[in-house]
Amino acid sequence: MEKTEVTFEVFEDLEEIKRKLVKNGFNLTETYTLSDYYFSKHPMSRLKRMTYRAIMKDSFLVREIKEGKTKYILEYKAKRIDKAGNVKSEEKVEAVLSGLDCLKVFERSGLTMWCKVVNHSYVFKGSEVEFAVQVVDGLGNFIEIEEQEGMEGLTAEEKLSALIRLAKGLGLKIGDDFSCKKVFMLFKMTN
């Protein structure tokens, strides 16, 4: 099922973000760490010249989730991207894996691990909204709001508008880009 989400960069440190959110009635309900290992059939030299859309079309990731115990998921994100390069929605296809050996299999098969994103997530919940504050190693702080309950009947554009309004109403210092592509931002910084 296709879902809509927004991701904004936040220009405040984590403690200030938490303080503001709690002051505005949000509760921290969950914390976890995601390590995403992105793989492609293309060599690094070609990946450096590709657009975000082209890279993501030919990539998949192994997601390591540390929340108490560790689990691994093989994931492909089919993203719907508009002409301006904004992610309008995405559909995830997932399979649960048994351990980190899959990373060795992919590397030894000749696939390129082109980026690793480590994301420390803090989930906040209010009376009608739930979202994650994400601290991405080497990149910065972000807020990600996924499609909320009750948005099922809206078009993708209506969902996007509603999610942008929610993000802007949180009282945080956020950027203008509602479609931050953390993996691509980190990839460009390191390559």
What is the fold's blueprint, element by element?
Layout: E1 5-10, H1 14-23, E2 27-40, H2 44-47, H3 52-57, E3 59-67, E4 69-81, E5 87-97, H4 101-108, E6 112-125, E7 130-136, E8 140-146, H5 156-168, H6 182-190
Antiparallel strand pairs: 1-8, 2-3, 2-6, 3-4, 4-5, 6-7, 7-8
Could you explain the architecture of this structure?
The model has no long low-confidence stretch (mean pLDDT 90). The two termini are 33 Å apart. It is built from six helices and eight strands. It has an eight-stranded antiparallel sheet with strand order 1-8-7-6-2-3-4-5.
Question: What is the CATH homology-level superfamily?
Answer: Hypothetical Protein Pfu-838710-001
Q: How many helices does DSSP assign?
A: 6
Uncertain stretches: none
CATH class: Mainly Beta
Mean pLDDT: 90
The main sheet comes to:
8 strands, antiparallel
Shape: globular
CATH architecture: Beta Barrel
Order of strands across the biggest sheet?
1-8-7-6-2-3-4-5
- Radius of gyration over all CA atoms, rounded: 17 Å
Separation, N- and C-terminal Cα atoms: 33 Å
CATH topology label: Hypothetical Protein Pfu-838710-001
Strand content: 35-45%
What is the SS-derived class? alpha+beta
Oligomeric category:
single chain
Assign a percent range to the helix content: 25-40%
What is the H-and-E element order?
EHEHHEEEHEEEHH
Number of strands: 8
How many individual domains? Answer: 1
